[in-house]
Amino acid sequence: MRLNVAAWLPVRAREQPDALAVAVARKGAGGRTEYDELTAAQLEARSNKIAHGLTRVGITRGVRTVLMVTPSPEFFALTFALLKVGAVPVLVDPGMGVKNLGTCLAEAEPEAFIGIPKAHVARFALGWARKSVRIKVMVGPRLPGGGVTLSRLEQDSPDAPFEPIEPEPEEMAAILFTSGSTGVPKGVITPHRVFANQVRLLQESFGIEPGERDLATFPLFALFGPALGMASVVPIMDASRPAEADPRDLLTAMEDYGCTNMFASPALIDKLGRHCQAEDAPLTSLRRAISAGAPASIPSLERIAPHLPEGAQVFTPYGATESLPVAVIGSDTILAETRQRTEAGEGVCVGAPVRSMEVAIIPISDDAIADWADVEPLPAGEIGEIVVKGPVVTPGYYARASSTALAKIRDGEAIRHRMGDVGYLDAQGRLWMCGRKAHRVQTSQGPLFTVPCEAIFNTLPEVRRTALVGLGAPGSARPAICVELAAGADWASVQPKLRALAAEHAVTAGIETFLHHRGSFPVDVRHNSKIFREKLAAWAARAA
């Protein structure tokens, strides 16, 4: 197994030099969609030239390097070049907000900064990583203080192969920041071992074959494409706002290249499904869609399923930046079997653990757990905290010892990761997720979990989505359901239906407060799917 993901690139360039590796859509003359393409040989050659240039300016093995470049041929070539030289890319979501960006970059202490002009202007104006950054590379027109341009870096580099480093398994490959859906984003230390095992498990779990083409709507997953032998086709969209993407642009790219795979957030699956339903648009080339970031809603799966070819389905892998993939389930199983239990308040089934991943459920605790020997796992059917062990578990957070202590448990030579979610294992060994641990509402009658409660109310056609929050102090909190209505729904007629539903189910029988939230819920910037419940809770406290 190749530990350096970038080592797959020269192999593919040698075996299939003319195969498409990357295609990035843009609006051309007259509004037509045009593409900037790189073949496998071209991506290999360009990443080699950039790798030579990076080493010349001091970006070498172990140098932490912020990469703030929009999805483009340059983004792919730069990322593979950074991996080849053994630098440590620091990847953050620009949409996480100025304050969080500043905090994240200060923690990562990057020594180099590669970015588009807008990123460099923000870096200079806001003082991002001012104390640590010493090397700057501008991707685009040269600006004062932006350092050397990427074009100059390439021009001054030889047309010669660049041998990717052979890393140690635990050597840091990247720092990937979490979405920050339950607090300030944290930098996940991602070793080369994890990247290599992710490629292996993704290929095994989904049956991805060389020569496929991926509609890449999430930049980080797009990078796995060339390593998996897939071409990455990037449609016209703002990657930081997937829910605002135009489905027509997605379909155009999918049809132009006959994409067989699609990675999309639940928000994007929902939007594309609505469009396909309204326009009766078939997704003829797809073999599979992969949706991650949050559980895809049952209505969204129902909408998109009829438009997929026979044998194709939407897979919803469970995992996190700290460990992905953990478990996998397909829409066929969800719609035919597990949805009934979900809609009855039993949580969301996220499937059986993938090969080589071990899942355990432990008693819920907000304290650190130093050693696995101190833990007594819970039996099947009992809700607790989800803990995972396996080859894609990351070792900790960068410069956050306290967060690492709360999230990791030592198990001999291995490390187990506390997912931050609650759930249970059923009699078949499948994992059911019941929500984030931090979002449980601790009432005087015991805890309530978000996913089981919300799924009951989400069955109403007049409801787009709901969110459980607590009013008051933990231990005596009053549960409240925030409600985002579907278009055209009337709150006065919906409210009594919500109360009736609550009374029908034991898990929701104690919920009496329902609050109409006008407008969309606040959601994460990465997937536009994870609800910021802390913000909703503050709103609910004012509205109640």
According to CATH, what is the class of the domain at 5-166? Answer: Alpha Beta
Q: Helix/strand/pairing class, anyone?
A: alpha/beta
Seen as an oligomer or otherwise, the chain set is single chain
Uncertain segments of ≥5 residues (pLDDT<50)? Answer: none
The helix tally amounts to 17
Largest beta sheet: strand ordering? 7-6-5-3-4-8-9-20
Instruction: Estimate the strand proportion.
Output: 25-35%
Summarize the amount of helix as a percent range. Answer: 25-40%
Largest β sheet strand count, sense and barrel closure? 8 strands, mixed
Distance between the termini: 56 Å
Going by CATH, the architecture of the domain at 5-166 would be: 3-Layer(aba) Sandwich
Q: Mean of residue pLDDT?
A: 94
Radius of gyration: 23 Å
Report the principal-axis shape: globular
CATH topology value of the domain at 5-166: Rossmann fold
**Based on DSSP secondary structure assignment, what is the total number of beta strands?**
28
Outline the structure in words:
The chain has 544 residues and is an alpha/beta fold. Among the domains are: 5-166, 3-Layer(aba) Sandwich (Rossmann fold); 440-543, ANL, C-terminal domain (GMP Synthetase, Chain A, domain 3), CATH 3.30.300.30. The chain has an eight-stranded mixed beta sheet, sandwiched between helices. Strands 15, 16, 17, 18, 19, 21, 22 and 23 form an eight-stranded antiparallel beta sheet that branches. The chain has a seven-stranded mixed beta sheet with strand order 2-1-11-10-12-13-14. Helix 1 (8-15) packs antiparallel against helix 2 (40-57), helix 2 packs across helix 3 and helix 11 packs across helix 12 (298-304). The model has no long low-confidence stretch (mean pLDDT 94).
